């Protein structure tokens, strides 16, 4: 494991960015397949094959391109590109704040795509997506601030090479980030803007009017985002690479378990709980860390 880690560190910035662009969809698609399989087993079903997400995306790419508004696909393309750009920056070891802002911009284009059509379901999903963004973004910023307090840098490369595990200094920040990760992964009880699985509702919220290639691009963008978010979990344990990988995968499985055991919250409770947890876990951790230095 350490040999693989050292090999990746020896790659140039361009090589690491290209590796993410090429390999992240494969990893994200496999994770989506594992998600479906584990979810089915928790519900007492056999479930689809692990490769099913790839079959679905290839099928969507071959479908006829049908649009309601000639502008609706453009924001989705930007959503995918900025998500890819954010992940490429992360794995290249770039500035964490720039990555967070780029990812937020990607989410903004996703919302804009939902508003491009006249469907009330799509508009409602877009409004809920905005509420989710306002709910989780403060915790994401606090994560970056906490890592800066510990390492003295916002650069992912420097943070990953810190001489001690960040989880020892940022347990509250990690707990807060784990909480809002349920929103970012679009899992119950916080999957307000769109239905990730069929167990929630028939209408798919913000993606209601997207079909064929556009829907495939949305799914691929979510694969990229999943790998990026698990990479952020990795940073908390990066001092021990094998443990960091185990914790990233354990976090992913934990989110599936949460998804299968909770019903959807209303937007008021989602917003209030996210900000409350951010204040209690994240802000208090930052304050304690400041007093200790």
TrEMBL record:
Keyword Transmembrane: yes
Keyword list, A-Z: Membrane, Transmembrane, Transmembrane helix
Bilayer disposition of the protein: Multi-pass membrane protein
Top-rank taxon, per record: Bacteria
InterPro entries to which the protein is assigned, alphabetical: ComplexI_Subunit1, NADH_UbQ_OxRdtase_su1/FPO
Compartment(s) where it occurs, according to its Swiss-Prot or TrEMBL record: Membrane
The keyword Transmembrane helix is annotated on this UniProt entry: yes
GO CC, any one term: plasma membrane
PANTHER family, per the entry: FORMATE HYDROGENLYASE SUBUNIT 4, FORMATE HYDROGENLYASE SUBUNIT 4-RELATED
Name of the protein in question: Ech hydrogenase subunit B
Species of provenance: Geotalea uraniireducens (strain Rf4) (Geobacter uraniireducens)
